[in-house]
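fwd from M.: "can u put these together and see what the complex looks like"

so here's what she sent:
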Amino acid sequence: MTTVGVLQFGGSNCDRDVAKAIRNLDADAEPRLVWYKDSLEGCDAVVLPGGFSYGDYLRAGAIASQAPVMDEVREMADAGKPVLGICNGAQILCEAGVVGGAYTDNRSAKFQCEPTHLRVESTDTPFTRRYTEGEVVEVPIAHAEGRYVAGDLDALESSGRALFRYVDEDGEPSEEVNPNGSDGNLAGVRGDRANVAAMMPHPERRCDPLLGGEDGRRVFEGMVEAAAE
Amino acid sequence: MELSPDDYALVEEELGRPPNAAEEALFVNLWSEHCAYRSSRPALADLPTEGEHVVVPPGDDAAVIELDPTGDGDTLLALGIESHNHPSYVDPYDGAATGVGGIVRDILSMGADPIALQDCIYFGDFEREKARYLFEGVVDGISDYGNSIGVPTVGGQTYFDESYDGNPLVNVMCVGLVDRDSLLTADLKEPGNELVLVGASTGRDGMGGASFASEDLGEEAESEDRPAVQVGDPYTEKLLIDATREIREHVEAARDLGAAGLSGASSEMAAKSGYGAHVRLDDVHLREEDMQPWEILLSESQERMLYEVRPDEVDAVREITEKYDLGFSRVGEVTDSGRYKASYDGETVVDLPAEFLADGAPVHDLDREEPQEKTHPSPYDVSREGLLEALSDPNDASKEWVYRQYDHEVQTRTAVKPGDDSAVLAVDGVGVALSAGCDSRRVEAHPYRGGYETVVENVSNLAAKGARATAFVNCLNFGNPERPDIYGEFRDAVEGMADAAGDVGVPVVGGNVSLYNESEEFGSAVNPTPTVAAVGVAPDADAPRMEVSCDVGTPLVLLDASDDPSVLEEVAEDVASHAEASHDVSTGGLAVALAEMCGERGVRATVDGDELYDSSPGRVVVAGDPDEFDGGYESTVVGEVTERDLEIHVDADTLELSQEEIEEARAALEDAM
């Protein structure tokens, strides 16, 4: 049995949705909701879910990134266990320096909840191994501070750290389909190691055909599969 | 603020002494229209409120019904609606945000998990900059608060009319989910139990909010009244939501602190149960120094809940609040004295008969003048240009600019998303459909008929997604009821709603009344606006969508239940079983409805010229086999699904619009913002 920790900070609000997505996988895996004051010990992988940790009253993810439990997240990352940050979780991983780059306000300066098309850029991570390279999937975003600033974009691209890119239905990236102004239309990136990733779109919201499709499911399937290896 | 001379005399007679200043302040707030429904109670008595599936009828923080009246009855829905009109004019961002916070806590008071919000927001003439400023601020406030607390905003209405120029309306509805075993109410259970205050600390914000909400807005309202608007903290609210899932197993009764703060919550709990309560104001956790006892009693600081806790459970509740970093104080106890007492610094500062304080406000006997019937002919020509104008009217145009700013997918239940007739949530294997709104121009034209139609329109929105209505809540927004013409509108509109609810056989289980929606600056009262929010259940959450994507040549059938809305239940059943696509006809009439159905495929239809823009409710257009739609409603084939674009034959004319032209016209609101 693979145990996937779902880390809950005060203000996390997609924790139960991620747990539901993992529970509904056809896999020998169980989610474990872990309050930030408790320990991730015994978890084979961890998801930092979306939400507004500590109200995002400073910068999105900034306060949560300082929580002591983040030391355990770093240890899991160093041990090669899958670590995935989604939306606010992605912001926390960047703030904590576990993944490079930073997130800032959307170009629109508004919260945006809308479907986006993503192209899979690399399949050599736990989160993308179940997809094929160049595949276009539909997964929605829901954020106000999702504009990814890469720092050194060329280095990121040349080292294969791009995982998902905002594109049109035909797989073409353009300014028009970049929902928030992210560098290189980047929707998801990995860290220095392939077992750590940050993405703004919400794969847990596309795990049920009744709710708009299942394009997000393979993110968790791949993660659970890798964690069991 | 002081009591009116009549009220003062009544209080003095009951107490056998004059009330002290703190006591008078309690009466001013708890006997306000906002808390005591003094002008509206006679009208509300007409509304049907009963049903076998109604678990908690009107009178608590929120109503509770069985999710599926044909199911096992263990899964319940809590429903509530609240207005935050005056605060939203003075401070649109905070006013709207705290409106969301307040109604969510009403749902928490029932021990329920909030699962969806709907917002009905009404502003002045869209051409006016002020209206657009308030609109943007209100949407921002709802977005920031609702998104942070992780409750999806799935529906509602955005409406513009010059009658709201000086007084916008913000009506927020919340739905919660709770198992019967975890249900809480505000009924105190036993003397000797403790009263525990959980959540944010108490400060001076929002002093006298309840009585502020019961006055007209003056010209100076924006600057003078700002201290009466509360400021929200969605982070603390989210912690309260999470903590409620654990606290509800350890407490006996709950009430949120809303209008009139601690005094409102504790005295109403005491009055409701027939027991009494004693509150120790020294023990309330404060955020400001030197607060007066009456300030602690009346503060409307947000994000606070009051619980009745058995002495042996107090530590369990304390531990949960520590886990969630929430404030906690043991502020009093349940007594059997029938008195509502508050003490401070060893002295009794309030000592009143609880029931008299909570329920003793006399009902106003108001004069009623019969409204004059008005007619509002459609402003649009029967032409291509007229049709484009209708589609780009801010009331009919796409509201994507609004709902894109609301997280409408969090909690992963939203099957039919905003922009359709109703939202449908997947819950427990069935579809829970939600609709809310009011076409107030039709109510203004004829309050009785308009009140009736508001109910029918919402039932029809549910039926268009295959759901039959199970309950309504309403939010009655009107002008100053002391004016006979306004009171006449109010009584007529409520009678219309009551008759419609009776005709469709669905109870009105809760609501809110907001009167005095007038503006000195504009010398105007708002249109009579009896917002209805409806809940329904469909056999399946995978409802037919508004846009057609089915085979070319599929017939389009108009199902008309406007003569007998009771048959909307049959419409719902047939839509659920047989419709490929389905869309309710409302503002903008068939013309706008047919244009909105165009998407992947197009629509060709034939319509009479005088019916093109007719917005009367109770009608649904479906795509499907006409033989399957043969219930007690009228059923007419009006057209068919085409490859693409819109083509309407009206008398001798043909109106044609391309899909691009439709989308461009419908983007009018987005473009203007």
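replying to her w this: Chain B has a mean pLDDT of 94.
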